[in-house]
Specification:
three-stranded antiparallel sheet, alpha+beta, 4 helices, elongated
Length: 183
């Protein structure tokens, strides 16, 4: 899961700097309530098991063991723009930031290869990035942070993400066959 967040950060930092965000460090993983000096925050607010992508086959690990199938989840992110511009231009600035983030995620709707990092890249896995259709009511409920005013945010679902099982079973492989035909 950490590598998915790091991959999203890498993608957004590469495509959103220097315009509309001047420095890559101003894009980060943080709650909108604890955003510090970020211009764009990505907040992982929910994780749900993905039954549609659940795997049932054991995974071979060498010649004498098999691993139980990985858990498959979808990650739910909230992207929020935070402009430090003057009041008259703050909203326009935040719209530009979110609009550009939406372009980047739409144009790169599958994280794979050089766009991914860590174990996600090593395993050659692909994850889809899809805008979530959050209602205004759902967004308002999520924004129930210690009396902070609501800021325009958008949701994304990223998945399927595989979390390896730690359960491994030792087995004996078939190493020889004996065929006998009787007539």
């Amino acid at each position: 899961m950490a590598d998915v967040g790091a991959s999203l950060l890498k993608l957004l930092r590469e495509h959103m700097t220097p315009d509309p965000i001047p420095q890559p460090e101003l894009i980060g993983l943080a709650s909108p309530a604890d955003k510090g000096d970020l211009s764009l925050s990505l907040f992982l607010y929910n994780i749900l098991e993905s039954g549609d992508n659940r795997q049932t086959r054991m995974v071979a690990r060498g010649t004498d063991s098999i691993q139980f199938p990985p858990m498959t989840v979808n990650l739910y992110y909230l992207l929020t723009a935070h402009s430090s511009a003057e009041l008259q231009s703050r909203i326009v600035d935040e719209h530009r930031i979110l609009g550009r983030a939406m372009q980047v995620l739409y144009d790169n709707s599958v994280l794979r290869g050089p766009a991914s990092v860590g174990t996600l890249a090593e395993a050659g896995e692909e994850v889809r990035v899809v805008m979530d259709t959050l209602t205004g009511e759902a967004l308002t409920r999520m924004w129930n942070f210690a009396d902070l005013p609501y800021r325009l945010s958008i949701g994304y679902v990223v998945g399927p993400v595989h979390i390896d099982s730690t359960r491994i079973k030792t087995t004996k492989r078939v190493t020889e066959r004996d065929f006998r035909i009787q007539g």
